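hi! just following up on the protien thing from before. the input was this:
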Amino acid sequence: MSEAFKTLATDLLGKARASGADAADVLIAHGTDFSVTVRKGEVEKLTDAGSKALGIRVFVGHRTATAYTSDFSGGALAALVAETVSMARATGEDAAAGLPEEMIQAEPIELGLYDPSPAALPTEERIERARRAEATALGVSAEIVNSDGGHYGSGEDSVVLANSLGFLGAYRSSAVSLSVVPVGQRDGQMERDYWYTSGRGLGDLLSPEEVGRVAAERTLRRLGARKVPTAQVPVVFDPETAGDLLGHVFSALSGYAVFRNATFLKDRLGELVASPLLTVVDDGRRPRGLGSRPFDGEGLPTRRNVPIERGVLRHYLCDTYAARKIGARATGSARRGVAGGPSVGPSNLYLEAGDASPDQVLAGVERGLYVTDLIGFGVNLVSGDFSQGAVGHWIEKGTLTHPVHEVTIAGNLKEMLKDIDAVGNDLVFRGSVAAPTLRIRRMTVSGE
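and the predicted 3d structure came back as:
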């Protein structure tokens, strides 16, 4: 299939040039997607679908337009090319628009992106994995009274990207995941939590029983939650919520945020913007990583980027457009779907692990909050102001004492990053974003 799509992409580029485009690129994606949700042992929803789509981006000078279709008939594609070139002529000039200045042909590199095992698993066994995860969770305790379901999902994707500079590349990938969301009840109070596992193949996954057990334990530890008095105390983020925090940092590192004056990190290159304990990595070539790929959404080679190294801001993350806008170089960070042009996106984004165990991170807290879930949106990347609802556990003398809910944690990312005073050694990739346990010296916890 990819060979046929390569031929098709090359043909469409020729048609675009013949229609008056100075440059163009074509992205073709073909894939399958399976998902099943089991609730109380019964199949609640099952989807098994395939899809294919094609997106084209054309440039007439510094004018650009994009379009996409799922109709691969010859007449439809010829009309799509002509209409896209016509749209480009009608748009305004943008000096930063255009393909990369130079291309490097895609190198043959094995990243372990495709694993045939999910596709080979019979449908009934996929359903059974979701059923086993949920059944295990429901059986952990009488206080687990319900479930929002066990979910199993898998899929495959094939991508072909070609442009008028001579780039032509393709790759195939797979993904599979399993999760469960148990509901617990105690003294009339109901809580829910979740756990999950994901990877490229079945061998990357935790067992359904392990997923169910952890999900139930996470739910049970939320029962009996209460508010705490408002205070300024140390706050410890568990790996999941530390990953959420990292997502905000990534947004602040985007070249788009820089040229739009939408980040507190603008004009800070070479400066200490975070604790020396903090190193941010975005690695597009991590073997079997869920964010890995041999080339980015523009055809540039992916790479291991370290935008923040031991607290120092080394560079921003850019696609070609953002790089031109801020006078930088593209970092192989372009993400793109068929329905539009590239933008900056993460690959395998993580915080490097520290030396402290999670218990040691907690042991350094006399009185504070351990956060296991963040709620709502409350981050201003221009000012750095941070305020989000939180769920977790109260810490007394280094020990988790009781669950906490209905509190808000507040601070400013500028200070929060510098106030990280402990980084755990518990970095585990469960998805494409990962972080270890983090401790911030002081934040405001607003409760009663």
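The first strand starts at residue 23 and ends at 39.
The CA atoms of residues 181 and 194 lie 4 Å apart.
cheers
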